[in-house]
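Progress report, Aim 2. The chain analyzed during this reporting quarter is listed below.
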Amino acid sequence: MRSKLFCLLFLAGVVYAGEGHNHEAAIEPAPHGGILRDSPPYKVELVLNNDNAKIYVYDKNLNPVPNSELGSTAVGALAFPKERKKREVIFKLSESAYEGEMPGISAVHRYDLHVDITIDGKKVIGDFGVDNIH
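Predicted structure tokens for the chain:
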């Protein structure tokens, strides 16, 4: 009886821990070769080129979301493992993606980036918890 109760409590904890943001990669390959994440009901892709970053926003079928539905900026919170304070990163909407600079990102192997994106008047979180050791 005690083992059944323990299993039930353990499973409840696992289910509860799954709430909130999503570090899981999307199933599909990323259209621009970046890191694709599910941000229901959307998908977001992070593409890094040295310290420059682009974030592409797609619907659930990987069709680009029109700029007319996107906010003009997206605000990110970037954390490196050895730093306690998160850095704010501002991404500005260009023709095809949000663009911004993340100084130091090319020199680290692990980072956590949460980006608040406004899509059709609603806030969506792009969650990129990354361990990019090659």
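The helical segments are 2-17. Strands lie at 35-39, 42-49, 52-58, 73-79, 87-93, 98-101, 110-119, 122-131. These observations will guide the mutagenesis work planned for the next reporting period.
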